[in-house]
Amino acid sequence: MEPRPRSFYVLSAFFALFLLFLYGPTITIAILSFQGPGGGLTFPMRGTSLHWFRDLFEQQAVGDIWGSFRRSFALGLMVMVTTVVLSVMGGLAFRKKFRGSSVLFYLIITSLVIPSILISLGVGLIFSQSGLEVHWSTSGFGSQLTWTLPFGLLIMFAVFNRFDKSYEEAARDLGATSWQTLRHVVLPIIGPSLIGVALFGFTLSYDEFARTLLTAGSYNTLPLEIFGMTTNVTTPVLYALGTLTTVFSLLMIGLFLSLALWSTRRKARAGSDAGKGML
Question: Would you say 122 and 112 are in contact if contact means Cβ atoms under 8 Å apart?
Answer without folding.
Answer: no
